[in-house]
Write a structure and sequence with these properties.
The protein contains ten helices and 17 strands. By secondary structure, it is of the alpha+beta class.
Length: about 300
C-alpha cells in the first residue's frame, strides 16, 4: 500500500505546533533540528490526513498541516490501524512504527490551548528511523506490516502415528486466532506433530528459531513420564529463562487443583524467539494461554527494543 507524504513539519520546542518546511533530514536521532529528536522510541510523529479531515469537520474549521505537532502528514493509510514494528519504506528513508497514540496533556499543552483539542493522542503514531535521508512533500512510503509468526508443536507418540487425535495443538491455534481477530496485526501459524523424541524436538526448535518465528508453543511432554522430554530439550536451549510466567500459572491453578503443580513447563527466549512449553491437555492449554497472552506481545516488543506500554 502506498502512503503519500503531504507535508513535513518541524518545531524547535516540545508541545508546540510544527511549521511546514520544504524538506526534513532524518538521521539516527529522528528529524534533524526538531525538538523531539533524540535516542528514544518517539523520534518521528506522523498523522494522516484522514484523521485531520475528521477532526476539521468536528471543529468546524480547516486544520493546517503541522497543527497537531506531527512531523509528517500522510495520506492513503489509516495510521491508527497500524501496529508497532510495522514499517514505512521510502526510496531514501525507512521508519519503524513504535507507538500508536500517546498521553494527552490537555490544557497544559500549547496545541490544546490553540486548537481546542488534539487528535494526536488518539490517532497519531510514532516511529524511529531505520534508514536516514531527506524527505519532502510528494515523496511516498510503502507500508510493510510486520507479520507475527507462530509455530505450534504437538509432542505425542500416538498422535504422530495417527492413533490419536491431536486436540491441544489445534486449540492453541484457535486461541491465537481469536486473540488477534480484533487486532490490526497479521499472523501466520504453522503446526507440526512429532513423537516424544529428544532429537526430533531439538531439530524442530533449532529450525524454527533459525527461520525467525516470533513464538514457539509446544504442547505435551511436560510431566514426569519416561517419554516426557520437552523440558529436558528446551530448557538448556534457552538464552534467557522467564520463570515468573510458569510459576504464576502453577500457583494460580494449583491452589485449587494440586495436580497443576506437577507440570514442569518453562518459558524463555532462544535468540529472538519466545518459547513456551505447555502441558498436553486441552484444559491446561486453555489455562496457560490465557495467562501467557497477557504479556506475550509486550515481550516481543521488549526483545526488539520497543518501549511500548
Amino acid at each position: 500500500m502506498e502512503v503519500k507524504v503531504l507535508s513535513v513539519n518541524i518545531s524547535e520546542e516540545k508541545g508546540t505546533i510544527k511549521k511546514p518546511v520544504d524538506s526534513i533530514v532524518l538521521d539516527n536521532n529522528g528529524v534533524k533540528g526538531d525538538a523531539h529528536s533524540g535516542q528514544w522510541h518517539r523520534q518521528v510523529s506522523l498523522l494522516g490526513k484522514e484523521s485531520v479531515d475528521r477532526f476539521s469537520e468536528q471543529a468546524g474549521r480547516e486544520i493546517k498541516f503541522g497543527e497537531f505537532a506531527e512531523n509528517i502528514t500522510t495520506e492513503g493509510l489509516e495510521l491508527i490501524n497500524t501496529s508497532p514494528m510495522d514499517r514505512l519504506v521510502g526510496k531514501k528513508v525507512e521508519l519503524q512504527i513504535t507507538q500508536i497514540g500517546k498521553e494527552c496533556h490537555g490544557n497544559t499543552c500549547a496545541i490544546f490551548k490553540e486548537v481546542g483539542n488534539c487528535v494526536m493522542p488518539k490517532e497519531g503514531i510514532f516511529a524511529t528511523v531505520v534508514k536516514g535521508g531527506e524527505l519532502k512533500a510528494g515523496d511516498s512510503f510503502k507500508y510493510q506490516p510486520r507479520v507475527f509468526k507462530f509455530k505450534v508443536v504437538t509432542l505425542s507418540d500416538r498422535a504422530s502415528r495417527g492413533e490419536y487425535e491431536d486436540r491441544s495443538g489445534p486449540r492453541i491455534i484457535e486461541i491465537l486466532k481469536d486473540y488477534f481477530d480484533d487486532k490490526p496485526r497479521i499472523i501466520e501459524i504453522d503446526h507440526t506433530i512429532i513423537p516424544d523424541d529428544f532429537e526430533s524436538l531439538s531439530l524442530v526448535v533449532e529450525k524454527d528459531v533459525y527461520n525467525g518465528y516470533d513464538v514457539i508453543f509446544t504442547t505435551g511432554g511436560t510431566g514426569i513420564g519416561q517419554r516426557d522430554i520437552t523440558v529436558e530439550v528446551v530448557k538448556p536451549m534457552l538464552d534467557k529463562e522467564i520463570p515468573g510466567i510458569m510459576e504464576m500459572i502453577r500457583t494460580k491453578y494449583g491452589a485449587q487443583k494440586p495436580n497443576a503443580l506437577l507440570s514442569r513447563s518453562v518459558a524463555g527466549l532462544i535468540r529472538d524467539t519466545l518459547v513456551y512449553t505447555l502441558p498436553g491437555s486441552v484444559k491446561a492449554v486453555n489455562e496457560y494461554t490465557t495467562e501467557i497472552l497477557k504479556t506475550m506481545e509486550h515481550l516481543i516488543y521488549m526483545r526488539h527494543g520497543l518501549d511500548v506500554h
